[in-house]
Amino acid sequence: MIRHPHHFKIAFALALSAGAWGIYWLPQRILVEGGLTGGWGTIAQMIIGFLILLPIAFWKLIKKKETGFGLPVTGLLVGGGFICYALSFLLTDVVRALILFYMTPIWTTIFEILFLKKRPGLERVLTLGLALGGLWIVFSKQTIVPLPENAGDWLALVGGAIFAGGMIRLEIVKTDGVFPIIFSFFFYGALFNIVAGFFLVDYLGEIPAIEAFISMSSFLFVISVFYFIPTAIVILWAPSKLGAGLCSILFLAEIVVGVISSGILTNEPFGWREIAGSSLIVLGGILAVVLAPKEEKLINSNTTNF
């Protein structure tokens, strides 16, 4: 992959969008407090996004253009990974969910080697080391090795691996613009969420009353239209321009915002570990953008289909 002409602008937009997702835990908890338990607040957001984009999909279908219905693997990977992440906030601490999900740089590096036959350079080793070192500093106050301890932890960890696979798909899939990708994310993500909600009913609770959906409908619409959809477009579009590996490191901006916001707005701690760890993550992200090679080195000329 040759470096995009607008490499730095796209990287900056991605960092901002990822940072915005760092406060996603807050609307999740607001929805729960409003009665949308069981992850149904997330399902509602996905369905609203799907319904908003559906008329455009029908128009594209009439024009015989790509809609996103034909991207089930991509949609299930990026949508399913995100759903696991969103549900994890309801079952574990914010910081634990963020850190376990954002092991994605490790997963993407492994997947790039296996499926894209890329050879990580020294700059990847350096930036990955800084980012993961920052994660470890934040997490090591509880345990030396960040192992899952509950259902929410496992959802975050598995979701990160699934989402990393989705980013690899986003890097290699060829579509007519970003619309098919964002539509497949909402459509297949909603399906994944409904199935996951039923499987995890013992942890998340039963389907809430219709009154809860009605009372929270305005809030759901606002966060879907002005927050969720715009940031998702940037996050799902960027891997095809920057590469999955670099994007996975820039996504760590979400941890910085998440750790700071949870420390300010909740009783979760925010001290020297969070400050030092966040600083290393930011430094790793900056260096990842600046040191990104102008052209990726491949292990061989043939890539594996994924």
Architecture overview:
This protein has 306 residues and is mainly alpha-helical. The chain has one domain. Helix content is 72%, strand content 0%. It has 16 helices and no strands. It has helices at residues 7-21, 25-33, 40-62, 72-88, 94-101, 104-116, 122-139, 151-172, 179-199, 201-204, 210-215, 217-237, 239-242, 244-250, 253-265, 272-290. α1 (7-21) packs parallel to α15, α3 (40-62) packs antiparallel against α9 and α6 packs parallel to α8. The radius of gyration is 19 Å and the shape is globular. The protein starts with 6 loop residues before the first helix and ends in a 16-residue tail after the last helix. The model has no long low-confidence stretch (mean pLDDT 83).
Lay out the secondary structure.
Layout: H1 7-21, H2 25-33, H3 40-62, H4 72-88, H5 94-101, H6 104-116, H7 122-139, H8 151-172, H9 179-199, H10 201-204, H11 210-215, H12 217-237, H13 239-242, H14 244-250, H15 253-265, H16 272-290
Helix pairs in contact: 1-12, 1-15, 3-9, 3-12, 4-8, 4-9, 5-8, 5-15, 6-8, 6-14, 7-16, 8-14, 15-16
Biggest sheet, open or closed, and with what strands and sense?
none
Q: How many beta-strand runs?
A: 0
The CA-CA distance between the termini, in Å, is 17 Å
Strand/helix succession: HHHHHHHHHHHHHHHH
Mean residue pLDDT: 83
Number of domains: 1
> Rough shape?
globular
* Uncertain stretches: none
Number of helices: 16
The fraction of residues in strands falls at under 5%
User: If you compute it from the alpha carbons, what radius of gyration comes out, rounded to the nearest whole angstrom?
Assistant: 19 Å
**What percentage of residues falls in helices of 4 or more residues?**
over 70%
